[in-house]
Structure formats: C-alpha cells, structure tokens
User: Fold this.
Amino acid sequence: MKTILIQVGKTVDKHFIAGIDDYVKRIGHYMPFQIVTIPELKNTKHLSEEQQKVMEGELILRQIQPTDTVVLLDEHGKELRSIEFASWIEKKQQVTRQLVFVIGGPYGFSDAVYNRANEKLSLSKMTFSHQMIRLIFTEQFYRACTIIKGEPYHHE
Assistant:
C-alpha cells in the first residue's frame, strides 16, 4: 500500500521540517510514503473563508485518484490510540492500494472535500498549528508502522 499525505502550504519551521523529514525517511523502510504540498493561495484578502476553502478543495481533489481511500485529519474525526491507529492501518493495507491523508488549510475543508472523504480522523481534542500537526502525524504514522512490525519503538 502506498500512503500520501496532502497538505496545504509549505512547512516553514526548520525544526518541524527536520523532524518530518526524519519520520518520512523512517516510514519509507516500511512502505512507500510521500508528502504532496499544495501551494497556499495568493491574494486572498478579497476572498471569503468559504471561497478559500472551495479553491483549496479544488486543488486537493486534483491530487486524489478515484480509487484512493481518503482520510481527512479533522478535529471532528474519530480519535484512536496509537495501537488502534496501527490496527486501523493494518486493515487498510488489506483493502486499499493507496491511502491518502489530508491536512487542510487554515479554514478547514470545503464541502466537496468532505463529500469525497472516506473517513475522518482526529489526532487530538486539542488544537495544534497546521505546521505542528504534520510532525505529529508523521511520528504517529511511523509509530504505527513499528507497532505493526512488533518493533520496540512503542511502549504500553
């Protein structure tokens, strides 16, 4: 199974970039994993939040194939413990060729993106910056890979 993380806007903090790059490299030992960055919209002062979500949504949907399983990282999604997330991924590996996670822009997702999604997951009840969520997600995905393989990274 190939996994893709789609994110809106570049990661700018060098510490987050270093951590994300480290985890992406580690994940690569377990499965193909790729980050696709959609450029932030320019000249948005004259656009409403809804218009921005629609425009970002169109860019997100262009990256998604009809057969992809799409999972939005969304504050209203289902919360899983790390072991549950690993089990969830293991099940997805049996039924999907490409798993796509999406981190939206600052205002969330358009209705079209919500309608295309197969599932929604939340990484916490707390709110984190979009920059930080990228690091948290890649770490949790790596952790899930090690749990699936029975490796000692995760401790109960």
Summary: The first helix runs from residue 14 to 27. The first strand starts at residue 2 and ends at 8.
